[in-house]
Design brief:
This protein has about 375 residues and is of the alpha/beta class. The chain contains eleven helices and 13 strands. The chain has two domains: about 120 residues, no CATH class; about 250 residues, Metallo-dependent phosphatases (Purple Acid Phosphatase, chain A, domain 2). Helix 4 runs antiparallel to helix 5.
Length: about 375
């Protein structure tokens, strides 16, 4: 399906953008060839590493590919919008309406600038996002308890050790009670990412740093990666729970494996089993990489689910394309049958389409309050 979509985008660019330009044929052929090279970014990634999910080129090359790829995709969308406008004008005026070359050059410039901004926004060290979430039945001992959610770090050639180290330093300065990493920490094999992921060893929180898998851990060797996370001091919440006790007040953190486990022959997700026998009245905070099963969690009495996976939909305006695959949950806070679901935009994102426009990455510090407190969101 992606190849079909990219093929249609290329056809649109060649026939509706390049061909009408008043330029020599040789230049048009070069433009068409460059566009084809840009749109084959994932093919080049697969040649570099054996996987489209792990481009193993130097970081500037990965960034350049993302810019070129993003420019072509955005230009195709702009050209499509232009054609719709020209068609409407033709219907109104009763004749063929064309667009001068200047309009097309303007669209190309807009696409190139927007893609550059989008790549820069994707690669930056995320800023802090502070939110408060009311929890029904939260013991007073946990009023003000802070959780830092990191998710979708996608540590890779685009997000290497230097980037990871900066994220760790910024995270540790917050002094939170617990850090929850909700999957997709890496893109690449253990051997390829060994040095890049090392800075995560230094993450610190009062009650520990906990991790669950995302779908990308299954792509690159689930067992080896979970063992590596353990070596780094990241505590697994895969199909298990912990009970925190403060002067008799109890709070449960639980986690489950990713939906990808259903098809990988690894430990299957079973939230009901994880929650069986929890202390009566203790609210549950669930870590689940994908938000799709939020209604099931709500029915089992979970108070708060923390998810990622969607990257916030990447671009305002086309972010709703991610909604159908994620039960309608793409970015931010949702009320799901009385349970709060928070879908994090991601600390980073997949280096195969590193573009953000209006859906910024985030370090999300969550402060827990009793349910009667008024939730406040700060950016």
């Amino acid at each position: 399906m992606p190849q079909l979509i990219f093929g249609l985008a290329y056809l649109l660019i060649v026939t509706r953008f390049i061909w009408p330009l008043q330029l020599p044929l040789s230049i048009k052929l070069v433009m068409a060839a460059l566009a084809l090279v840009a749109l084959q970014f994932h093919r080049w990634s697969k040649l570099s590493s054996g996987s489209v999910f792990s481009p193993e080129f130097p970081r500037p090359v990965v960034a350049l590919f993302n810019w070129a790829f993003g420019t072509i995709v955005l230009l195709a969308l702009l050209q499509l919008a232009l054609d719709v406008g020209l068609l409407a004008a033709a219907v109104i005026q009763g004749g063929i309406v064309g667009a001068p070359d200047g309009v097309r050059y303007g669209l190309a410039s807009l696409a190139a600038v927007a893609a550059a901004i989008g790549v820069q926004q994707a690669m930056r060290i995320p800023s802090l996002k502070d939110i408060e979430i009311g929890i029904r039945g939260l013991p007073r001992q946990f009023d003000g308890y802070t959780v830092l959610q990191l998710t979708d770090l996608h540590i890779s050639r685009l997000f290497p050790a230097s980037w990871a180290r900066a994220v760790v330093e910024r995270s540790n300065k917050l002094g939170v009670d617990l850090i929850a990493i909700t999957g997709d920490l890496i893109d690449g094999t253990v051997d390829a990412r060994r040095a890049d992921i090392e800075p995560l060893r230094d993450l610190k929180a009062t009650d520990g740093v906990y991790v669950i898998s995302g779908n990308h851990e299954y792509i690159f060797g689930y067992d080896r990666w979970m063992a590596r996370f353990f070596d780094l001091g990241l505590l697994s919440l895969e199909n298990r729970r912990i009970v925190l006790d403060r002067d008799g007040g109890r709070l449960v953190f639980a986690g489950i494996t990713d939906r990808a486990s259903r098809h990988r022959g690894t430990p299957a997700r079973d939230l009901a089993a994880v929650l069986e026998g929890i202390p009566e009245g203790a609210p549950v905070i669930l870590l689940d990489h994908q938000p799709s099963d939020a209604r099931h969690a709500a029915k089992l009495g979970v108070a708060l689910q923390l998810s990622g996976h969607t990257h916030g939909g990447l671009i305002v305006g086309i972010d709703r394309l991610a909604a159908p695959a994620n039960a309608g949950y793409v970015s931010g806070r949702y009320d799901v049958e009385g349970m709060t679901l928070y879908v994090n935009n991601g600390t980073a994102l997949w280096p195969g389409f590193a573009l953000r426009l209006g859906r910024p990455s985030e370090l999300t510090r969550i402060t827990l309050r009793p349910v009667d407190a008024t939730p406040v969101t700060k950016s």
